[in-house]
Sequence to fold (1010 residues):
Amino acid sequence: MQDAVRQHGRPFALVAMLLATGLLAMVPTTAAANGDLAIVEAASPVDNGYVNVLEASSFSVLIRNDDAQSSAPRNIGWEACPTGAPSGHAHCYSGSGTVPGMAPNAEVEFSFDLWNPEGSEQGSSFGWATGVVERNYTLTYSFDDGDFDTSDDTLAIAIIYSKAFANAEVAAQDPRDGLAGLGSDPTYGGVLNTNVTYPQSGDDWQAQISTWLCDSCQRSVEWGWRLYEQGGSTPIASSSTMLSLNGFAWGGASTFTRDLPSFSHNVSGVFDLEFGLLNASDDLVPEDNVHRITLRFDDTSDLYLFDLVPTHNTEDPSAPWYYGTDALQASVENRGNTTLSGLSMRLVVTDVFATTVIDVNDMEADYSCALPTMTPGMTHTCTFDLLIDFDDDLLTLTVSVPQILMVWPDVSPEDNVIQEVNVPIVPGPVGASITQRNAAGVNTNGVYTTNDIITFVARTASTAAQPVNYSWYLNGLAELGFGQTIQVDAGELGIGEDYQVALIVRPAVGDAVSLFTSFDVLQYVPIEGGDAFFGGAVSAQPAVLEHDVQLPVLGAKYYIGNGKQPLMIHSFGIVDPVTGSDDVGLVDMRIQFNLSALLPSNINASTVELRLLDAADQPEWNFITPPNDLPIHNEDGTVDVVFRENVVILFVGVLPKPDVAIDDIDLIRRPAGHLEVAWNVSGDVTNPYLAGWNIYRITAPDTASTYFPSPEANTGLSFWEDYTETTYVASVPLATTSWFDPEPLDAGFCSSYLLAPADRSGASDLGRVAVSHAENGLPGLFCGDAIEPLIEVYEFRAEAWFNNDTACYQRAGDWNRCYEVDLSWTWPDHEPEGPVSWDLYRLESDPSGVDLAVLTPLLSGMVGEPGTTSTYHTDGFGDDPVRPYRTYYYVLAPTDAVGNPNTVVAESSGNVVRVHIDDEWWDYNQHLIPEPPPEPEPPLGSPWVGEFLDKMASDGLFQSALGVSLASLLVVLVMLPVVLNKGKRLKRVVRARARRQRSDNMADELDDFF
Fold:
């Protein structure tokens, strides 16, 4: 810096002058900067202003360049110290900035960076004492280097930091911004009208306010406006309302908008409007409570007419005036400051004699155009008809608007009328033409289908004499309609060539014009396939669509290659509806296929291609070639095709293998050594390209080790190809989940099974195989069961009895129905393979050796708990009635858990019980036997004597027997004494022999004793 001073020399001259005058002691420092910048005043905060301690401070000062030359950038700083504390005190705070270069005599408000007093919320750095809410600080601004005039290089003001800070600020703004329809003044802005109350409907009359309010503060302020004479200090009008600010108390700034009270004034002129907080004595920064703007009140009204021109040519002043509707236009502009409504623009046509012209309808040609509400600056154009008789060659056209505009006179009435004189009204060129298009708005060069609605449009030049009439005819005779546009349903016309349409155009004046156009109609055949495809075919003759869709033929080999497979086949034929012939003059067949709806979702549309087949059941294919167009594959997954012949389309693409899994295989023993294979599946079982399941079987002796191994341990395809090459036994449809093996297993032989998904060609997906398990749960052989059960129940008993209850007889009127049978038996143990079920049969003959399978059981499928007793009861009613004098055989036939029955009854089987039904009715009804008549008194009172006499008298056999008996009696009487004597002698001999025998026995006993 000293080098710079020496180079310029000015500081030395200044020092010499000061020494010469004796003033050196009065200069505190030597000026070290060029130029003369002055710190004029504090902008924010102002001297003795309040500062919110809860927000970052924004310090700004007004800087002025008092030098005649532009200034260089100059560093400036500030320091805030508690009042009375020296500079650099521990509680002083400071900041700095750089004032940019300034032009001579320029002023700028320089703002420092925001400064947030450290710890201000807690007050530790400011040293707030408990209960103290304010503190005085001295804020000093100064340049780092003094200049020629150091007296204005430093500025010190007093500021007051406050916790209880309350301030409301109304920044620079204009409430007229929310008012519509105001006039515009380049000096004063929007122009208001006298005696109008603002805001009007749809307007906003409001101002924005920012408020700072401490948490514990409560404020309610007077909010409104004051009107002053321009530059005045005394209000000439005011309006206010009370505004509560309590909802915004937090200590920081909150900004919001509030409506001002309604405003009006009744005197024109320029005024000052002050608005905001009109009375806020508790506001700590009162200088920003209101904002003042300058208003102008003016009710000048001025409508300006311009551009009276023919509508067909608004640019050429020499353009002719044509007869017709909407042939003339004029424009009006509101150049005043008032909004005008209820006005109209008027057209008057007069001839050279100033006589109002009468039009062809004998109506006065005095036209009126109602104007909309015209706000200041708004422009509106009206059109009028020129329906004038050509006999009047030279006319005067006068357009006008009122000179009294609502309640105000027009300040420039001379521009309220505009006129054209010596105007000839002539017929304009008709310029007629016909355009035709289909319903989609496409020009098809006159070729349509029966699906089209043909639109014919008559076009005329804007110069045609309006109104213009249009008449349409078909083939010169049939009336099609009237109007500029008509529509014709080609389907109602039918197939045909060279249809002729005539148009006659009749302008309001002038000659009619005739035009002709032709078209052809072909047959349209819709092709509709829901979301999958749509389109249409066109033919020269009547035709219908024949469509068929199918999946690739099962088992067929298409040999697509490139990793792609056949996906779907669609046949499209356009044929004669009667004969079925395809000779219908097919023009083309246009179809769009939506691949996402046509094919399963797991197929990538980008891999799909189209081929052509000779027939749907033939696998040979060809590429799509002329006369057909190549398919167009769109980015949205659709394909557009155009065929000119009937086709069979084969869709091919990369087909992911169906994601299916056979979760488990169960083998179920069935009777006679058969096995049933059952399985569960999961995954994409509805995939149309999964044709079914291929089943493979290995049969081997139960001691063999040949079976299908676990897939988890063997994943190679070649491995499974070897195992499945010769073991295939069956294929079943996709919906099938079980298969009965028709080959029974002989004793000692078992089977192992493998299942694999099969595609439509019949090929197995050997990457998703599943195998059956042996009874141990591991892959292996599973044996059948063809052995019938040999098992008997215990204590199979039957009891028959007669029910002598009268109710039984009353039930059927037959005592033979009142016999009942009760059976009982005890269940044996089940077989090791599972529970045994039983069927109960009844026969009326010995069942030994009978095959019960041909009979119908009384009960079937009974399963009992081993060791428990079951019973069966039957009577003379129901399906198995019992009757007396019958013998019944009841048989229990077992069936094992596999289903093998034992239906042949063995002799003396414990599963058979016999029961005979005796007639027991008389045992209970002896009282019903009638008493016999009394017998006559027998001879001698003895029944025996009477019977003896009867026999002697009537029975020859008895008589012979009686003779023999008498003879025998005589012999007995004669021989009895002899026999008696012989008997006595015999008794004596027997007794003697007995005595002798006893003596001999005693001697023998004595001999044995001794």
Q: What stands out?
A: The CA atoms of residues 274 and 291 lie 6 Å apart. The radius of gyration is 65 Å. Residues 1-31, 119-132, 358-365 have pLDDT under 50 and may be disordered. DSSP finds nine helices and 60 strands in the chain.
